[in-house]
Task: structure prediction
Amino acid sequence: MSADTEKHRALLGALKDAQGKGDGSFEKAVTAAFEHVFEHLGRLNDHVARGGPNGEDRRLENGESATLR
Result:
């Protein structure tokens, strides 16, 4: 988690440093920050989606009805 914290600090620092420069660096920093957010969301989805990262339905547990998912 420490590497992720360092990444977050670097992304925030890049955003702060690029503000008001008008050279495109702010847009690049925002893009990098959103890419990282989407990586987090992808990992979160993989973690909570028991069906897997491709979105397939998870298998039914013993005694579970398909209508109770």
In short: Residues 2-52 form one domain. The radius of gyration is 19 Å. The chain is about 60% helix and 0% strand.
